[in-house]
């Protein structure tokens, strides 16, 4: 028995040490590339469309990092010698139109973050350039890449939340749940999904470069190191979950395992936040801290809700619900306060640094996220009301749990929708 406990402690310390070394690989990402100006400027009225346009970004950007299309035709992008932040776009293949919309999408070579926008040019002469679309133009795969990027981000967010919040729920509130088949399966799926999302994020960057960047070159960039660190942390997460598979309730009560799970979970939250907009404002340190707390609150709430909905509630044990749900209700309340307060800081960071923020696509998605969040709070209040009526007095032990299950399930689905909106925000530029 003593030997097994010693091995468990050694294993926990090994996971902690490896996680800390992995975090050392991931350096904080730099500010994201944003379009500072274009020539012609968006909204310009032109006698005729020029042969070329120039786009100036806030940081250096290569031709392979920018995708720009007009009416479905992908346009050729060239570098401007001596100006690493300026790119030249060939407009000759653009089809004649009174209003030409140049849809651009740039990927930051440092952190892999994608910015996007539209440049609208009004042309008085409908013949514009007089040229037809270039049949040899490269295929436009930007939409597919965008969907893959957003999907990878959603899966990664959800996997992190279920892993971190699920382990928190099991270790603090329901250790017996570690022996449940559903709990183990859910944790295993979260790890597999996290590894897949990390791999997809790095593959998208190599894909967007059209073969111009190898995997080895990607690892030399900040985003490559962050993504690699995230993938390695997910492998360590697999070790943590494997211990749950092997020893169940006993291991989640042990301090070495809890420390290992805490370090790995904190590492996943930190690396996930590195590619967000938190460091773009005037106070990047505050932004990074607020992003970390924001993700901690979301993980504790979403992961706990998921474990409770999928694993605990189907047991329909009033005794377990009386013991566990009020405690989780307290954790959920604290999580909401953390989410709201940190969200206010993050909003201040971004809004104060972007002109005309309220008229951007980013703002519209943010409002959708806030509306969903408000709806989640209403569902949570209904769940809390049921807890107050039925789990605080022994006279209601026989109360049906069907209404509570429906309320919690609705709350869980809505929270996942909030995560989806958050993923779209992270992959969008605040300035457009």
TrEMBL record:
<keyword id="KW-0186">Copper</keyword>
<dbReference type="GO" id="GO:0046688">
    <property type="term" value="P:response to copper ion"/>
</dbReference>
<feature type="transmembrane region" description="Helical">
    <location>
        <begin position="293"/>
        <end position="313"/>
    </location>
</feature>
<dbReference type="GO" id="GO:0042597">
    <property type="term" value="C:periplasmic space"/>
</dbReference>
<feature type="domain" description="CopC">
    <location>
        <begin position="32"/>
        <end position="120"/>
    </location>
</feature>
<keyword id="KW-1003">Cell membrane</keyword>
<dbReference type="InterPro" id="IPR014756">
    <property type="entry name" value="Ig_E-set"/>
</dbReference>
<keyword id="KW-0479">Metal-binding</keyword>
<keyword id="KW-0812">Transmembrane</keyword>
<feature type="domain" description="Copper resistance protein D">
    <location>
        <begin position="323"/>
        <end position="425"/>
    </location>
</feature>
<keyword id="KW-0472">Membrane</keyword>
<protein>
    <submittedName>
        <fullName>Copper resistance protein</fullName>
    </submittedName>
</protein>
<dbReference type="Pfam" id="PF04234">
    <property type="entry name" value="CopC"/>
</dbReference>
<dbReference type="GO" id="GO:0005507">
    <property type="term" value="F:copper ion binding"/>
</dbReference>
<feature type="transmembrane region" description="Helical">
    <location>
        <begin position="401"/>
        <end position="426"/>
    </location>
</feature>
<keyword id="KW-1133">Transmembrane helix</keyword>
<feature type="transmembrane region" description="Helical">
    <location>
        <begin position="362"/>
        <end position="380"/>
    </location>
</feature>
<feature type="transmembrane region" description="Helical">
    <location>
        <begin position="185"/>
        <end position="207"/>
    </location>
</feature>
<dbReference type="InterPro" id="IPR014755">
    <property type="entry name" value="Cu-Rt/internalin_Ig-like"/>
</dbReference>
<feature type="transmembrane region" description="Helical">
    <location>
        <begin position="227"/>
        <end position="245"/>
    </location>
</feature>
<feature type="transmembrane region" description="Helical">
    <location>
        <begin position="257"/>
        <end position="273"/>
    </location>
</feature>
<feature type="transmembrane region" description="Helical">
    <location>
        <begin position="325"/>
        <end position="350"/>
    </location>
</feature>
<feature type="signal peptide">
    <location>
        <begin position="1"/>
        <end position="31"/>
    </location>
</feature>
<dbReference type="Pfam" id="PF05425">
    <property type="entry name" value="CopD"/>
</dbReference>
<dbReference type="InterPro" id="IPR008457">
    <property type="entry name" value="Cu-R_CopD_dom"/>
</dbReference>
<keyword id="KW-0732">Signal</keyword>
<dbReference type="InterPro" id="IPR007348">
    <property type="entry name" value="CopC_dom"/>
</dbReference>
<dbReference type="GO" id="GO:0006825">
    <property type="term" value="P:copper ion transport"/>
</dbReference>
<dbReference type="GO" id="GO:0005886">
    <property type="term" value="C:plasma membrane"/>
</dbReference>
<dbReference type="InterPro" id="IPR032694">
    <property type="entry name" value="CopC/D"/>
</dbReference>
<feature type="transmembrane region" description="Helical">
    <location>
        <begin position="154"/>
        <end position="173"/>
    </location>
</feature>
């Amino acid at each position: 028995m003593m030997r097994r406990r010693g091995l468990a402690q050694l294993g926990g310390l090994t996971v902690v040490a490896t996680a800390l070394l992995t975090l050392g690989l991931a350096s904080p990402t730099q500010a994201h590339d944003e379009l500072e100006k274009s020539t012609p400027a968006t909204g310009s009225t032109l006698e005729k469309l020029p042969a070329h346009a120039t786009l100036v970004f806030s940081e250096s950007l290569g031709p392979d990092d920018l995708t720009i299309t007009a009416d479905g035709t992908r346009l050729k992008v060239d570098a401007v010698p001596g100006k690493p932040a300026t790119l030249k776009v060939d407009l000759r293949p653009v089809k004649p139109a009174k209003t030409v919309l140049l849809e651009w999408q740039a990927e930051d070579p440092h952190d892999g973050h994608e910015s996007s926008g539209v440049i609208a040019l009004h042309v008085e002469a409908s013949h514009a350039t007089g040229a037809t679309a270039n049949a040899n133009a490269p295929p436009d795969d930007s939409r597919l890449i965008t969907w893959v990027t957003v999907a990878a981000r959603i899966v990664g967010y959800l996997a992190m939340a279920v892993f971190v919040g699920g382990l928190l729920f099991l270790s603090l509130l329901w250790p017996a749940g570690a022996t449940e088949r559903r709990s183990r399966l859910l944790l295993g799926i979260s790890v597999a999904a996290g590894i897949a999302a990390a791999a997809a994020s790095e593959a998208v960057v190599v894909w967007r470069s059209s073969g111009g960047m190898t995997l080895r070159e990607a690892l030399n960039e900040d985003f490559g190191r962050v993504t690699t660190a995230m993938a390695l942390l997910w492998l360590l997460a697999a070790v943590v979950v494997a211990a749950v598979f092997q020893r169940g309730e006993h291991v989640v009560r042990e301090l070495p395992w809890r420390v290992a799970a805490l370090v790995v979970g904190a590492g996943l939250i930190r690396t996930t936040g590195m590619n967000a907009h938190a460091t773009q404002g005037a106070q990047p340190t505050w932004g990074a801290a607020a992003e970390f707390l924001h993700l901690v609150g979301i993980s504790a709430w979403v992961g706990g809700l998921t474990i409770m909905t999928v694993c605990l509630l189907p047991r329909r044990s009033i005794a377990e619900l009386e013991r566990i749900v009020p405690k989780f209700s307290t954790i959920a309340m604290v999580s909401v306060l953390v989410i709201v307060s940190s969200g206010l800081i993050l909003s201040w960071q971004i809004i104060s640094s972007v002109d005309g923020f309220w008229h951007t696509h980013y703002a519209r998605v943010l409002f959708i996220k806030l509306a969903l969040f408000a709806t989640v709070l209403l569902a949570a209040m209904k769940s809390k009301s049921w807890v107050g009526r039925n789990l605080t007095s022994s006279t209601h032990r026989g109360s049906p749990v069907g209404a509570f299950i429906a309320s919690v399930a609705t709350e869980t689905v809505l929270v996942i929708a909030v995560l989806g909106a958050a993923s779209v925000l992270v992959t969008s530029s605040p300035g457009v």
